[in-house]
Amino acid sequence: MDNLLEVRNIHTFIGQFHILENVSVNVPRGSITVLLGRNGAGKTTTLKSILGLTPPSEGEIIFDGQEIQGRRSFDIAATGIGFVPEHRAIFRDLSVAENLKIAERKKGDLARKEELIFDLFPDLKRLIKLPGTSLSGGQQQMLAVARALVADNKLLLIDEPSEGLAPVLIEQMMAAIKQLSAESTVLLVEQNFIVASQLAEHYIIIEEGQSVKAGLIADLAEDKETVYHYLGAA
Amino acid sequence: MSTFLKRNRIRLIMLAILAVLFITAAQGMEGSDWVITTLRGLSVGAVIFLVAAGLSLIFGLMDVLNLAHGEMFMIGAYIGWTVYVRPDSFVDMVTPIFLLVAGFVLLPVWNALLDRLKLRQKTAQIWPWLAIILAVFILYVTLVRYPVSIWDHEVYAESPITYALALSQNLLVLPEAPIFEDISPAVALLGTLLGGMVLALGIAGLGHRKQQTVTRTPINTRAIGLAAVLVIIALLFFAINDRLTAQLLATSTTWRFFLAMAVAALSGVVLGTLVEVTAIRPLYDRPMYQIMITLGISFIGLEMVRSIWGRPEFTMPKPELFAGSGEGCPAESIGELLANKCSTVLLFGSRVRTYNEIFVILFGILVLVGIWLLLRYTRIGMIIRAGVQDSEMVEALGINVRQVFTLVFAMGVGLAAMGGVLAAPSMGLSNGMGTNLLLLALIALAIGGLTSFPGAAVGAILVGLMQQFIIKYGQIGINLPFLEEPFKPSPPLVPASVVLLMVIVLLVMPKGLFGRSD
Predict the structure, then answer these.
(1) Residue B126, φ and ψ in degrees, nearest 5
(2) Could you tell me the residue range of the domain that residue A223 belongs to?
(3) Are B382 and A102 within 8 A, CB to CB?
(4) Where residue A101 sits, what CATH number does that domain have?
(5) Comparing C-alpha atoms, which of B118, B352, B290, B133 is closest to residue B214?
(6) In whole angstroms, how large is the CA radius of gyration of chain A?
(7) CA-CA distance, B414 to B275, in Å (whole number)?
(8) Residue B451, SS3?
(9) Which of A70, A74, A91 sits opposite B399 (nearest CB)?
């Protein structure tokens, strides 16, 4: 299968702590892949290691045919990776419009993507002039995803999009992610197995800093025992 | 609107209290005294602001508390003084300095070349030091033989003080320009260029001591272009040296003053870039070391100024535009002011000094508005505002944050250096001016809320006002209800009062006036 992203046996240290001890992740082109696992298993660190925010000390990361490990984060991102971090990281001192504008890598990126973004998140159009501070949690999440769409990204790394959102917003978010996956490949971190199983096609389970299981999510949904063993609840 | 009031309740109350205090301060003195003291406070505030603005942007964006910022202010003042009073020395020094900088501009190229090289561990450890020693030797041979006509600290008649005095009385006579003696010009020029390159190569090599892999980093052609331009400028200055000096001496001191400011700002930018790239950048993982290294740089800067300019204190005459005192002065209208270039104007019945109390304030406002526009309406400003909050996320968007760091650091140092020139005619030059101002700027930042740009402005103004009002009350005395005699604050109470202001503000608002509460 054609993989857009291949993470091969990476190890990552944060300070003295060996957070990732051999993680491998394959993300097939055009799919939604989800990283599953308990709190503190190393899912977020895996995303950050791909982007070089917590650079891995060993292993290889191949994105779209080129090795990206060891490069600076901005350089990695510029190869076409969008990042939606766990706590959204909306810039407070910037308006909603500026929060989108800052993600431009070429002039006119935003103008080209505006239609797509407002189609996915009609709310943002109304909020465009407000400062980033005045958004609710759900709106911030939308803005964070929208920001990752501004540049031409082939891969989106989305960390916990459903965290802290009301059920109705989670559904809206899921629909949006499903829709945008038509344009780019998505690697998702999701605690909520039900959300994950409805969205993703492939999964990788990370347990104590190691990737222990991978496959099609349809198979996993059948296998209640595995789900219970690794995730604690179905 | 009501949410705005609610959210900023404490801040508004605090500002109101300060405003009331400020107005009550007027009760104890005559109206004209109050106007002058306020203007003086604003003027001091403007100078503090030029230092505090850069300090706050640098601290906000990269969490570096640049303790060398005050010395950069001082170095700016001394460089500006040299351009202004001794343009001949300035022109003489441009050539070697540009040649040296050209070598450092090539740093990205050296780094790219070293990336392609794999050396044995031992060799990689040793050669950078050998290169640096070699460079120092080459520079020792060439650099000191440049014919720079400089003052002689030992002979009072040729000291900076006398030159400044002579300029202020239009009696400036410069010593004859020296020539190359025991070295040929071509050897000196080439040697300096080579020395700078080897020095930069050695410094780049220090960063590659632990390199394991070979990467083919593309060579930065822009750096090569820029270095070539610098070399051409250096040669150009070398060619027209004498004519340029004569030309500079013939221009009015007003234009020379603005040239001095521009040169100081530019030197600050170059100096800031060098400091950031060579000293601060390798230490982003170790913030404590960064603070120590900026402290070290401040000492180096201070000693350099001491050894080059020698005498501890001297003055810088005011530019012509603000120095007139003949007929029609003090001016009573703007037209008269511009026509007679008066040093003082009559404002609300009191004599106000044009340079100290008007120009400095206007310049401060100009810089304030300039930076605000830059932050608000340009892409780089947007990146800075975002980076102050979360530079990691900015990097994750594909923006080279390190480059923005360097730019902001360079800009901040440039501003401080320009501030030094601005302050020199009114405050004079001394070895202590940097440390003094750094302290005031840090207090202004603490009052304003460390990383907030409007906070830096408000803090600087408050510190300036506080300082000047206490000085004024030291002269005229305050009538306090529980004292029979008017209380005259003694000079040591001036700095104490500024710190007291900070303590009060921080007790009520621990994050400062405009600090973020998170």
Answers:
(1) -95, -40
(2) 3-231
(3) yes
(4) 3.40.50.300
(5) B118
(6) 17
(7) 12
(8) coil
(9) A74
CB contact under 8 A, A77 and B393: no
3-state DSSP call for residue A27?
A: strand
* pLDDT tens readout for residues B60-93: 999 999 999 999 999 999 999 999 999 988 998 8
Instruction: List pLDDT tens digits, range A152-211.
Output: 999 999 999 888 888 888 888 999 999 888 889 999 998 888 888 888 999 999 999 999
Half-sphere exposure of B197 (CA within 13 A, CB side): 15
Q: Report pTM.
A: 0.90
Longest alpha-carbon distance in chain B: 82
In a domain, B303, yes or no: yes
Provide the domain count of chain A.
1
The tally of domains found in chain B comes to 1
Asked if B399 reaches chain A (Cβ–Cβ under 8 Å), the answer is yes
Which of A102, A107, A143 should be substituted to probe chain B, the one whose Cβ sees the most B Cβ atoms within 10 Å? A102
**In A, what residues contact B, Cβ < 8 A?**
51, 53, 70, 72-75, 77-78, 83, 85, 89, 91-94, 98, 101-103, 105, 147, 151
Q: Quick check: is B337 in a domain?
A: yes
ipTM exceeding cut-off 0.85 for this assembly: yes
Report the pLDDT averaged over residues A68-97.
91
B382 touches chain A (CB under 8 A): yes
A83 and B397: CB-CB below 8 Å?
A: yes
Q: CB contact, 8 Å: B384 with chain A?
A: no
Q: Which domain holds residue B485?
A: 2-328+331-508
